[in-house]
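Subject: Protein entry, chain in single-letter code together with its fold tokens

Category: Structural biology, sequence-to-fold work with a learned token vocabulary.

Notation: Tokens come from a learned vocabulary of local backbone shapes, not from coordinates.

Start of record: The labelled sequence and token lines come straight after this line.
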Amino acid sequence: MALQDIYRRVAGAALASELRDWRTGAAPGDALRIAGAAGSLPAFLLRALLDEDGPSGNGQPVPLLAVTPDEDAAAYLRSDLDALLGEKSAAAVLHFPATGQTPYDDEQIASSAPLTARADVLQQLTGGFGGIVVTSAEALFEKVPPPEGVQQDTLRIERGQTLAPERLVERLNGQGFSRVEFVEEPGHLARRGGILDVFPFSGEYPVRIEFFGDEIDGLREFDPHTQRSVSRLTETRLVPNLEREDEEGESGPRVPFFDYLPDAALAATFDEERLLEEAAERFADAEKRHAEALGERENDGEPLPAPEARYLPAGALQTQIERPPRLLFGTFTGDVEAETLEANAHS
């Protein structure tokens, strides 16, 4: 049987109908356990919520946050959703990854790929994204810049806009973009006469901005390897590395990822007990590394942010997860008060 045929059977079954009914009447803090939802069934049910009229249950574009214990589980869930949604997946499902960085390790070289993905998700959430965000305890453990900072740092430009290229380059340099001969990775910019290439920390491709004097005459995405156009644009957003540090090594204030979620958002947790254990282990490791780093810096006087400034303790993560209505898949802590739907009873 084709995957879409299976999905239609699941979406039309009593389990999906009862799930949608619960969502419509759910209040903040409510929880619903889906017992016996094995394999890819959770992905089918999340898509059913998305397809009905959005995760809000009333047609409003609000996000559904799906939280797994680790990045591998997040990748599997994302893969299931991609298969179910097909071409719609790119617009309906986002992955908010962990940075992969070790706390208080000044020698590590950060990969731009997860930083780009994280910045893209934050930027889309500030713009009213109403699909599914797949993430992990590891990713939520790392705090993020506040929403107002993302809005302030994101530069929206459009074709026909008057903007001196020199001023644009100056602003991008101030946001940490590096001037190079040819852009190859996020954070690069290159100027040749009236053409400015910018590789932002959002999207898959760099943007070529063509100026006629001080007017933006053309915008297009292009492949940095072939230099060929991928798509023409009427407008775009230039997002810097939102998690960058300044010259003093400071990265500015940090807040929980949940600050980006509207009150009507929905959450879904997978093996919540293990998820919180993972968060607790990571925070304990951050505290240990912080103490070691303090000892190494004892005589140089350099400031070192406390773990709570950069990372989210497990107790705080649990509080944040329990705030919106949430679905529980797999194991969860014994003190959770939740209604239960039996998946096996509807098979």
User: Anything to note?
Assistant: Residues 3-150+263-346 form a domain with the Rossmann fold fold (CATH 3.40.50.11180). The mean pLDDT is 89. The longest helix spans residues 272-296.
